[in-house]
Request: fold
Amino acid sequence: MDLDTVRTFVAAAEAGQFQEAAAELAVTQQAVSKRIAALERDLGVRLFTRTPRGAELTIDGQAFLPHARELLRAAERAVASVRTGRRPLRVDVIASRGAATGLMRGFHRSHPEIDLDVVMLFDIETAVSALRSGAIDASFRAVAAPGRPLPEDIDFVRVLDEPLQLLTGPGHALASARSVTVAQLVGHRIWMPGIVPGTEWAAYYDDLVAEFGLTIEATGPNFGSDVLIDTVADTPALATFMSEQTRLVWPAGHGLRRIPVTDPTPVYPHSLLWHRDNPHPALPTLRAHLATTGTGHDAPGTWTPDWVLPR
Amino acid sequence: MDLDTVRTFVAAAEAGQFQEAAAELAVTQQAVSKRIAALERDLGVRLFTRTPRGAELTIDGQAFLPHARELLRAAERAVASVRTGRRPLRVDVIASRGAATGLMRGFHRSHPEIDLDVVMLFDIETAVSALRSGAIDASFRAVAAPGRPLPEDIDFVRVLDEPLQLLTGPGHALASARSVTVAQLVGHRIWMPGIVPGTEWAAYYDDLVAEFGLTIEATGPNFGSDVLIDTVADTPALATFMSEQTRLVWPAGHGLRRIPVTDPTPVYPHSLLWHRDNPHPALPTLRAHLATTGTGHDAPGTWTPDWVLPR
DNA sequence: CTACGGATACAACCGCTGGTTGTGACGGGG
DNA sequence: CCCCGTCACAACCAGCGGTTGTATCCGTAG
Reply:
């Protein structure tokens, strides 16, 4: 099916006749007739009843019309998503089960009129160069990875400290604990597949290991969170970290336990980054929204790596 | 823009390489390459970065991908809307500011998983033949116009009695009344543009006129409810009937009055009609829904034309 | 260092889609 | 009864979009 054909159908339905639709589309009446005939052949139904005074929709045509309009709107939005200048606000969220997507959902709920596109970039370096080139407008990241200072023209604010919880199966040694301290985790195997070396997450867990002597296995291929959770549920010796805010969609009865971690609570520090000179009109709106909804940071009893910038 | 091209883009993005996408789409690698190149030329942005090991999305490509998927889903739904067998439930609602659309919205809210298409047919005869041919699955109508008994194979139930209210401007003689009786309306001009002769609505108002001696001007072109309401608001000598359930989207301060009518209250009797042998799986669900939400009918103090079938 | 494999891009060729022009059929209104 | 406006059909033709063949690039194995 061809979008020009759909456009022709809508034009003909609105005009009530092929001739006028043809004039509007700057083609001949015969072309419109052929396009409609082809569409009817493709769909297998008659869309118009032809009369000597024009063409009016059949019932099938009436049913098809709103879907055709929606199709054209979707095409419009698709093109707009890559249009330079006045395109939707393009935000990079960190590629993990994270809180950034939740923040963006909240923003979309309070500002449904602002068109959004969400992308996931590899690491903060990619994100920063994308911000500077204008390919994206904002990025949720942990600022900044060790030894790599942020460029002058990139601004940021801390928007959310995301506490980690321990996720275990029912057979785990800590499964019945109401909460665990970081010290209690020493010696237990914590499995974090899908952590890619070189990203901020990897640096975060490296620091966590270095500081408290934990055993975190960040290796192994990532088969998706289904496999991860399934494995954790069935393996008493394994646990994993998971955001407090991650909504588990998992059948009940698996006996999965979510256990808060204390003394201190490891939190992942999300910041919003943007280019100082980015002119996108929706960017201030996003910043204002996050300023109101964002929680405090560096609360007592929480831990973040040293290299996280304070502001 | 061509949907095959969009499909190709999505396939290539999922496969991560053109070759595999080509195999999946049963074309050559060169064809995929050309399609992607053409799409990039149309959009004016690069969608993939080509590597010796395949092709991965650029940031623009990432932003475009969900829109492309949505576009394909919309196309899917559009085709499904006219597919014979297992198509969305197709319901005819009466072509006026009516309660039927409200009922359908309610149904959609409680059963969002059921795909719906709404059409508006001219009169009950068209609706009945559409029901018998299977072109539509259900119809909201007033059953039945005088002298035209319903065929044997069409079933129906009364689902809603819709009370009429008087709508006046602030200068109208009855504007300050808390309620008016039908007898008080005698001599006042009531304007109902857009009532097409030969439809059930026309028959309804004809009966109302005949029974109570009202002055209803059902003639004149229909310029839309905006014009109607605007005129009523500014013309002290004019009033109109409007459903109690019609939500007015109108700037405040116009001083419009909605006045209940009593002794008796004219109600418009909506019935759901369907074909006895219609096999659509969602039809029983709709009937069950209407059975629970439907109000009673022929309540004391209400009026409907004689020819309305009771059940 | 070289050869090879697997990936994309470019060039040449060609069938067929989809446009135009010209014409016919049909039905309503003056 | 004729004329006008409408849509459909036929013939023709350009160009889009496919295929085949080939070049190029890069990572890797020998």
In short: The radius of gyration of chain A is 27 Å. The domain at 3-80 of chain A is CATH 1.10.10.10 (Arc Repressor Mutant, subunit A). DSSP finds nine helices and 13 strands in chain A.
